[in-house]
């Protein structure tokens, strides 16, 4: 077993996950759409906790191309993340697959770390589902998400937020000061960079906030990777 080469904080940033021209085009569409609404948190609209303008693009026909492009970029990053942290895939579920003799055996750390793209993709499709994507604009000097929060919490009839496994944020622009994603326990600030993809766990261990941008508006796309529902993962068991 080959562990992570440095003490792991499980926060990974993948630069150039999306090209700059595509990022600029998404920002321009956001501004032209006039579909943005006041940003909400888990408990509703609380601008003292989160001050942003948001568009939920998932399931909207006129945003389908953007949703697909973002999901593909995130999928590429997720495959790298799972190879870096194989237990993020196998530890929760004790996954099995047929060995050379046709008998089921449990996957181990090295199995995932060295898995080819096709095999890893099959596992990802079986285990995970993409979350709803929000495009967000944080106005310069006033926007932000200053409240320390995590992404995993019990709410809703289907407890959907409890299925969230990792969060992701794709930064659509830079050229402003501050505006970092700041993680409390890791004492780490991620500076926005156009086209960069941030992936991190959703639980309280990765409590974070979005700092206020200075000198320019900040645009991001953000969502989660969720576990499939139990009925899909375990059937009638």
General description of the model:
This protein is an alpha+beta fold and 237 residues long. The protein has a single domain (12-41, 48-82, 129-234), classed as Sandwich (Jelly Rolls). Helices cover 25% and strands 27% of the residues. The chain is built from 6 helices and 16 strands. The strands form 4 sheets. Strands 1, 2, 3, 6, 7, 9, 13 and 16 form an 8-stranded antiparallel beta sheet that branches. Strands 8-14-11-12 form a 4-stranded antiparallel beta sheet, with no helix packed on it. The two termini are 32 Å apart.
Residue-averaged pLDDT, rounded?
92
Give the count of structural domains. 1
Oligomer: single chain
Could you describe the largest sheet, including whether it forms a barrel?
Answer: 8 strands, antiparallel
Under CATH, the topology can be stated as Jelly Rolls
Cofactor: L-ascorbate
InterPro entries: Pro_4_hyd_alph (IPR006620), Pro_4_hyd_alph_FE2OG_OXY (IPR044862)
Domain Prolyl 4-hydroxylase alpha subunit: 9-226
GO molecular function: dioxygenase activity; iron ion binding; L-ascorbic acid binding; oxidoreductase activity, acting on paired donors, with incorporation or reduction of molecular oxygen
